[in-house]
Write a structure and sequence with these properties.
single chain, 493 residues, alpha+beta, Nucleotidyltransferase, domain 5, 2 domains
Length: 493
């Protein structure tokens, strides 16, 4: 059987990679062609993404494939984080570098939005969790500050849609990522025009919404010539939100499983058939994002490994080059349950120094202040595991389903200490892996789109056989976690 080759461009908020995927009729495999750092760049107190640098890295990844005598490609697709966007003028030119969702321009925008449209109406329409990083509040901040970019904007394209536009010349909004904006009607799966009009956000710049698994067209001839490709593969808009791609690749996902896509953010949820916009869902601020095959990702955004990444970065600035293995060993040796924080507290969204922010939070709230790197890392890990437990309990109530398994994918699935804490805190078996779920989901959806794999269930089974997961059973320590839950639930956000 001939081997199908795909390029998966997988972009995260801290790094990106171009991956080569292969489907040989029995197994899916992936290998990196190039990896690169990514992160916001501060200019005049505004945080931007270097989107042209990202584009250059994508071209470099394609060139790496061709320099190795790479086979013709059956497809190419981009996935990325959500909510951020570029604005194009009437000639299709990028007006400015996209602004990072962690930029402080959205401070206070939730209140401004609610003064025009009630929070109940916004949630009933969109089904999306209230976070100031959402596209809706980024655009509102531009409108209220009279940002001249808006008056010149002809088209708004989310990050993966922008890159697909540069690849194919087709400007659209792919559903899974568009759903993260809090501007999409979760019932009609189109832009919420009435709500946007009340917020004075221009509807005309929003492109047509398409479903995941849409072929946009062939890769532009100029790009093929520049990179040495011998064929013009189809540019495929898969599940362009990285979490949507990752969930597509979760083996064994069923109505009794909760998932955690674990990386800079932890996205914890369930795959369901229809949005849940009940009063309870609104009160607990859950979100209904779009998934593959018409499904809904009922989930909660949790701060995730951002806390650890930023702690490690702070210690590096101070001259302490801790490896991840060293930090986990230090955390394993630190006393249990000494310091517990709410990882989703506003204090930790984008502090100048994460360890200091954690210590200040503890000091302010009468919590034992962690003094050593090991104590701080253990604080982060235990707090995340307890947060997972509270979200798990709420998921069961919202969905009405009995949850018997937690399935963790992504880079965080390699963190054995966090996996063990999660199994004990949730008192459920944890199934960890695959690590590269997002890239695998990207490749899988491309293979589904061209008909190389017949259906999603088959694809998920193939991924399980290609990358067998690890199972972690809860230990005898689980009762100690139950005792910590009331303490955690009292922590301020």
């Amino acid at each position: 059987m001939p081997i199908d080759h795909f390029l998966a461009v997988d972009l995260g908020a801290s790094g990106g990679r171009v991956m080569l995927g292969r489907w040989d009729g029995a197994r899916i495999s992936i290998e990196p062609l190039t990896r690169f750092d990514n992160g916001p760049i501060a200019v005049h107190n505004r945080q931007h993404w270097d989107i042209l640098g990202i584009w250059n890295h994508i071209l470099a990844g394609i060139r790496t494939h061709t320099s190795r005598g790479g086979a013709p490609l059956a497809g190419i697709s981009v996935d990325s984080w959500g909510v951020d966007y570029g604005l194009l003028d009437s000639q299709g030119r990028l007006i400015a570098n996209p602004t990072c969702y962690r930029d402080h321009r959205t401070d206070g925008m939730l209140e401004h939005a609610f003064a025009r449209v009630t929070s109940d109406d916004i949630f009933a329409t969109t089904g999306i969790q209230f976070m100031q990083i959402n596209t809706l509040y980024q655009l509102l901040s531009m409108r209220l500050s009279q940002d001249p970019q808006l008056s010149h904007a002809d088209k708004l394209l989310l990050v993966p849609d922008l890159l697909h536009y540069w690849m194919s010349g087709v400007a659209v909004a792919e559903y899974t990522n568009a759903s993260t904006t809090q501007m999409l009607d979760c019932h009609t799966r189109d832009w919420a025009s009435d709500m946007l009009a009340q917020l004075d956000i221009p509807r005309q710049m929003l492109p047509k919404v398409i479903m995941p698994g849409t072929i946009l067209g062939p890769l532009l001839a100029s790009i093929c010539a520049d990179t040495g490709l011998t064929n013009a593969p189809p540019v495929i808009a898969g599940a362009t939100h990285d979490t949507g791609a990752a969930i597509a690749a979760i083996p064994g996902l069923d109505p009794h499983s909760a998932y955690i896509s674990s990386g800079t953010w932890s996205l914890m949820g369930m795959e369901i058939a229809a949005p849940v916009v009940s009063a309870m869902a609104r009160a607990v601020n859950f979100t209904n994002e779009g998934g593959i095959n018409g499904t809904i990702r009922l989930l909660k955004n949790i701060a995730g490994l951002w806390l650890l990444q930023e702690c490690r970065r702070s210690w590096q600035r101070q001259g302490h080059e801790y490896s991840w293995d060293e930090l986990m060993a230090l955390a394993s040796g630190a006393p249990a349950f000494t310091s517990i924080i709410n990882p989703d507290a506003h204090d930790f969204l984008n502090p100048d120094d994460m360890p200091s922010a954690i210590q200040a939070y503890c000091q302010r709230n009468g919590i034992t202040v962690p003094q050593t790197p090991g104590a701080i890392v253990r604080c982060c890990l235990e707090s995340l595991a307890l947060r997972y437990r509270t979200v798990l309990d709420t998921l069961g109530q919202l969905s009405g389903n009995h949850i018997n398994t937690v399935r963790i994918v992504g880079g965080g699935s390699q963190n054995q200490l966090l996996n063990r804490f999660t199994a004990d805190a949730c008192n459920l078996p944890v199934v960890a892996g695959p690590v590269e779920a997002t890239a695998l989901g990207n490749v899988l959806i491309q293979a589904l789109t061209i008909g190389a794999i017949p259906d999603l269930a088959t694809g998920r089974r193939i991924i399980a056989e290609s990358y067998p997961p690890t199972i972690i059973e809860p230990s005898a320590q689980r009762t100690a976690w139950d005792e910590q839950l009331p303490r955690f639930l009292q922590l301020p956000a």
